[in-house]
Amino acid sequence: MTAPSLDVRGLAYAYPDGHQALFGVDLTVERGERVALLGPNGAGKTTLVLHLNGILTGGAGGVTVAGLPVGKKHLAEIRRKVGIVFQDPDDQLFMPTVREDVAFGPAAAGVRGAELEAVVRRALERVGMERYADRPPHHLSFGQRRRVAVATVLAMEPEILVLDEPSSNLDPASRRELADILRSLDVTVLMVTHDLPYALELCPRAVILSEGVIAADGRTGEILADGELMARHRLELPFGFVPSSVA
To answer: Class of 6-245 per CATH?
Structure first.
């Protein structure tokens, strides 16, 4: 039986100042699922995500990625398997050209020569940015930079693609283009977002994390249509948006 992409069991975590961010989170994400992680600010979403690739450790409970426990023994492999795309692509792109940015991770992992060129080309093709390989990232639009940031992660062939507010600051065309790309990918997706229509469009399943615990887990449309649940966890749909308006 294939291990799930992500299995979180009893995860609790307090920061050194004593602030308890997570109180026993249980979450399983199967391979190929696209799941939206929703919740108000301060709910613990970032703390949870930082446990997925071992940036944060030392709490109670545990996390496994594709059957591997997150910890020092498997840290390099875990960080290859969990690809995080930050909200601001400029936090992720730092090389002189797009090609060099996408090649950075695989090259650091020992990929060289023709194999490296093929990896970079394939990653850029998956996000529709192969024509921009020799451009400096800072010459690209914000939406194009976000797509390159996705390519830098895809080049590592991750098990899970974690996206932090992927639709933020995108114009409508860039938003749609990124949605098309994300739908086409054959990886597990965990999308942290306040953009509830985007969550509904892309993720059949949604999880609400609120005050450090999982408050709801189910079909995205059903969760967004539950007005009482949404209000209780400070989540609001855009004015006039009806959850059934997106299939």
So the answer is: alpha beta
